[in-house]
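Tutorial, part two.
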Amino acid sequence: MDKIRRRQLELVRRGWLRHLKRVNRKDKQRSPWIKAPPPIYSRNLSWIMQNPDSFVNGSIKTEKFLPTITLEVPTIFSLIEEEEKSFQFLKELFHHIQNQTCGTLYLDYTKCEKIDVDASVCMDIIIQDFKSYFANLLSKGYEVRLLSIKPLNFQKEQISKILFSIGAFRNLLGLERKYPDIITYPLCCGRGIKVHSDQKLEVDVTALVDYILKCTSKMKRPLNFEAERNLFQVIGEVMANCQGHSTTQCRYSIGYFQEEESQDGHIGTFHLVIMNFGESIYQKFKNPRCENPQVVERMVELSSNYTRKSFLQKGKFEEDTLWTLYSLQEGVTSSSKKRGSGTITFIEHFFYLKGNRKFDNVSRLNICSGNARIVFDGTYGIIEKPSVSKETKYKMITFNESNDIQDPPDNNYVKYSKNYFPGTIISAKILIKDDNLQPN
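Running the prediction step on this input gives:
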C-alpha cells in the first residue's frame, strides 16, 4: 500500500513539474508589458502649441535638466502696461513646464510691484492645464520630472492680496483669504456648446451681474432696473460670443473690486477680464468658412482702400489690426445669425459704470486679439451714424477725429503688436469716484 501511495505522489510531482515548465515557456514567449498611450494635451495647450508665435518660443534653448530653476515675475505683470516683458515671462514659463527642464520651478515675486488680471489668469490657466496633464501621465505610468511650481518672495501686501483673492494661490491651490477692501469675482469657466451650456451661461451671467451690482452698491450707486437689464443683456452677448467663437470651446471670466481712501476721497477700482483661447477676431473673418461673407467683402474692400492710400504699414498697422477695429462696429459679426452689437455696447455700458465718460488716466478697456491691440479710455467716443436707408442708426467707434472708418485711427489706441495672443481677451479697469457719480 505504501508503494502504491508513493507511486501516486511521484506522478503528481512529475505532473506539477511538467505544468511549471509549460508556464515558464509561455512566459518567455509573451510580449513585454506595454504602457497605455500617453494622454493628450488640453484643448488650450494644444491650440497654443499650434501657434508658435504665442506663448511658445522656439528661440529659448532647452537646458540640461536642473534640480531648480527660478523665473523672475516682471515688475509690472500686465499684457497691456508691460506687454513685452510679460509675454516673455509667459513664454519662458511655458517652455520650462512643457519641456520639464527642472524638478522645481520657482516664481520669484521680489521685483513685482503690480499684477493685472489679464496676465495673472493666463499664467494660472497654463499651469492648471499642465498640472492636469502631468497627473494623467502619472496615472498611466509615465515619468514626470517637474514635481512642483512654487512662488517666492510674495510678501508685498498688494501682490499677496491678488495671489490669495483671485490669483494663483486661490486658482491653483485653493488657498483663499478674505480682505475687507476687496470684493472678488473668482475664475469662472464655461466649456462646450452642447447640452446645458445655455443654462450654464445664464447662471454665469447672473453671477457676474450680481457681482457688479454688489460693487456699485459699495460706491452708493445702485443701478436701476433698466440699467441692470441692459448690463445683463450686453454681458450675456459678450460671454456667449466668447464661448461660441472660441476654437477650444471655453470661455473664462474673472475680476475683483478694490476700495481705498485716496487724495480724491473714497474711490473704487473695478477689474474684469473676459477671454478665450482660439482663433483671433481677424482669423475668424479670414477663415474661408466664415458664415458672413458679406461682411468679409466689406472688410476686403476696406483693406484695398487702405492699401491704395498706403495706410497699412508692416509691423505698425496691418490688416489684422484694421479688421479687428472694423469688427467692433455695430452690425458686424462673423456669424450669420447674430446682429453683432455685443462688443461696442459692452464698451458703452461698462465704461459708463464710472459715472461719466471722461478721461481719468485710469479707466480703460483693452481688446487683445491675435496681433491686434485696441484701447478705449474715453478719449475717442462712440458715435451714431444713419444707415444707408437713413431709417435707423448704428453705433461706431473709429478712434480718429473725422469719425470715419475710411481714415486711419490714432495709433496710440489701435495698433499692431509683434506679440501674438492666441485668442481674444477683453480686460477692463474702471475707476469709480463718489464725486463723479451721476443718477441713473
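Residues 281-436 form one domain. In part three we will examine how such features are distributed along the chain.
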